[in-house]
Amino acid sequence: MKITAGVDEVGRGSLIGPVYAAAVILDKNIDKKLLKDSKTIVKDKRELLSNYIKKNSIWSVGKASVKEIDKINILQASLLAMKRAIKKLKKKPSHVLIDGNKIPDLKNYNLKAIIKGDQKIASISAASIVAKVARDKFITTLAKKNKGYGWDQNFGYGTKQHLKAIKKLGINKHHRKTFSPISKFKTHNI
Fold first, then answer.
1. What CATH number is given to the structural domain containing 70?
2. How far apart are the first and last CA of the chain?
3. For residue range 89-118, what is the model confidence (pLDDT) as tens digits?
4. The domain containing residue 67 runs over which residues?
5. 86, 121, 134, 149: most buried by Cβ count inside 10 Å?
6. What total number of domains does the chain contain?
7. This prediction's pTM
8. Inside any domain, residue 156
9. CA distance 110 to 173
């Protein structure tokens, strides 16, 4: 029997925190009409869908840390997070469909990149939802411990509010030091 996993990552463009990836093998009975790119779904519905997917699928989440992002670059860190998610699945898929145009270096897996896969393939959409909810929860927790940056609203992306807060508060250990404009700011709070 052919087992297909969908894989997607979130947080590549954020200025803070790890990049997350999820791998999902959907149960055949899941309602695929509910699944679409996580960016097009409102937060509350996305959280409900993530729970629905997790109850009705085989899934895993992988991530790559800020240190790894700064060391190997965001593309390689995204691929590393994907690789970790794929390898953590409780069942080995016969096919792995990955959102984008790059695939991780993973031996003994049948991998295929699909541009805009999160809009076309239900299992990739599901992975996008699971990864986004997992990362958003982590960033919301960071926001409570690092007040003033507005991470609970901007999730670390380079909004005016976030950039203004960086000028006032400086950067901290959660910021990706190699990212522009972070690389231009003085380090205050590390």
1. 3.30.420.10
2. 51
3. 999 999 999 999 999 999 999 999 999 999
4. 4-144
5. 149
6. 1
7. 0.93
8. no
9. 37
